[in-house]
Each structure stands twice: as structure tokens, then as C-alpha cells.
Specification:
Length: 223
């Protein structure tokens, strides 16, 4: 019997990779579009939301199991690396936003949307609660088609639920500029000032008026 040709370990590894790649390609072709959207979301570990004062938005998302980091900043404008004072004074086009880093195995993007909606007034124009101006308008910045699809579907659902237009914008992801360090984790670093501001702004009362028992969304058990 003739000897079989010898395959080097490198050749065997290359053949294995080729077969694996072919199987993966075939599986992707067979997947429905909805499954591909879920796959795209699983790779996306960042979400950006504008819900008025970023101190309050940070606090809301920090309570969610699966959220690993929140960072206050600005996005959607034309000025490079703007300061807080420049943004709130108007003219830069930026919104106050929070970049949310999350583990998609613990929390899904759709669940983050649920939390976002229940922490804003979805009917306000160029304001949120006591804060007025274009930098305080609400928006969802989407980084891929899957996020856009879910964001638009959730907005449509709310419009039907309340029977009125939702003013929250859905925008393409733009450059994110972190705010100054003094604004990061403000609700933790300055608890007394933060609680006074939040109370005086009427945020809690307005959220309960709009959302009832759903106000604030879900949180980490025991928080």
C-alpha cells in the first residue's frame, strides 16, 4: 500500500480554518435578516443617549445591571472638543450626552432603550425638565442599522401608546467628546448639591407624571 502524503501541522491548521470559514459563510447566508441584526447588536458594546442633564442620565444607567461604565460628554455638534460652558451657552450644536458601555450578555440594547425612555420627558422640545436650550434636547445616537431599527420601533410604539408625537430625535452616531472631570460621576462626588438640583428641577415629579410606576426604568436588584 502506498504511503499517504504527509500533511504538516501548518497545512492541517490551514485546511481546518478554510473549512471553518466556509461553514461560517454558509451559516450567515442562511440566517434571516433579524438574526443578523441580533448578531450586530451583540458586537455593539456602547450606546449614546441625550436626556437632558447628563448628571441625571449617568445616575439612571449606573443602576442597570450589565452597564459597566458611563461617561458624560457632548456629541452632535460642530465645535471640536467643546467645553461645558460653550455647549450650554449655545451655538456649538452639541447635546449633553452619556456614553454607556455595557455587557450585551447581561443587558440588551432594547432594555437600555426602555431605561432611557423612562428617564426623559419624550414630549419636551429643546429642553428637559428645568433645563432649556438645544443642548438639553433628547436624542438617541445610533451606531449601526440594528440600533436604529430598535430605536425607531421603540419611538413608534410610544407614539401609539400616548397618542401624540414623540419629540426625541434619532441621530447617526457622531464624535463623542468627554466633559470635564468635574462633571463625571457628579451625583456621587457632590451628592448634596446634586440632590438639591434634581429636586428643584422637578425631574422626579415630571417622570412620575408621564410614566407612573414605570418612571426610572428597571435597576440592579437591591439598588
Amino acid at each position: 500500500m502506498p504511503n499517504k502524503p504527509h500533511k504538516s501541522p501548518a497545512r492541517v491548521h490551514a485546511l481546518h480554518n478554510q473549512r471553518f470559514a466556509s461553514l461560517v459563510a454558509g451559516a450567515l447566508i442562511a440566517l434571516p435578516l433579524s438574526a443578523l441584526s441580533v448578531s450586530a447588536l451583540a458586537e455593539s458594546k456602547h450606546a449614546v443617549f441625550a436626556g437632558g442633564c447628563f448628571w441625571c442620565v449617568e445616575e439612571a444607567f449606573d443602576k442597570v445591571a450589565g452597564v459597566t461604565t458611563t461617561l458624560s460628554g457632548f456629541s452632535g455638534g460642530d465645535t471640536e472638543n467643546p467645553s461645558y460652558r460653550e455647549v450650554v451657552s449655545g451655538g456649538t450644536g452639541h447635546l449633553e450626552v452619556v456614553e454607556v458601555e455595557y455587557d450585551p450578555e447581561q443587558v440588551e440594547y432594547a432594555e437600555l432603550l426602555d431605561v432611557f425612555w423612562r428617564n426623559i420627558d419624550p414630549f419636551a422640545v429643546n429642553r428637559q425638565f428645568c433645563d432649556e436650550g438645544e443642548s438639553y434636547r433628547s436624542a438617541i445616537f445610533v451606531s449601526n442599522d440594528a440600533q436604529r431599527e430598535l430605536a425607531e420601533a421603540s419611538r413608534e410604539e410610544l407614539a401609539k401608546r400616548f397618542g401624540r408625537s414623540i419629540t426625541t430625535e434619532i441621530l447617526d452616531a457622531a464624535t463623542f467628546y468627554p466633559a470635564e472631570q468635574e462633571h463625571q460621576n457628579y451625583y456621587k462626588e457632590n451628592p448634596l448639591r446634586y440632590r438639591f438640583y434634581k429636586s428643584a428641577c422637578g425631574r422626579v415629579e415630571r417622570l412620575e407624571e408621564v410614566w407612573g410606576d414605570e418612571a426610572g426604568g428597571f435597576a440592579t436588584p437591591g439598588s
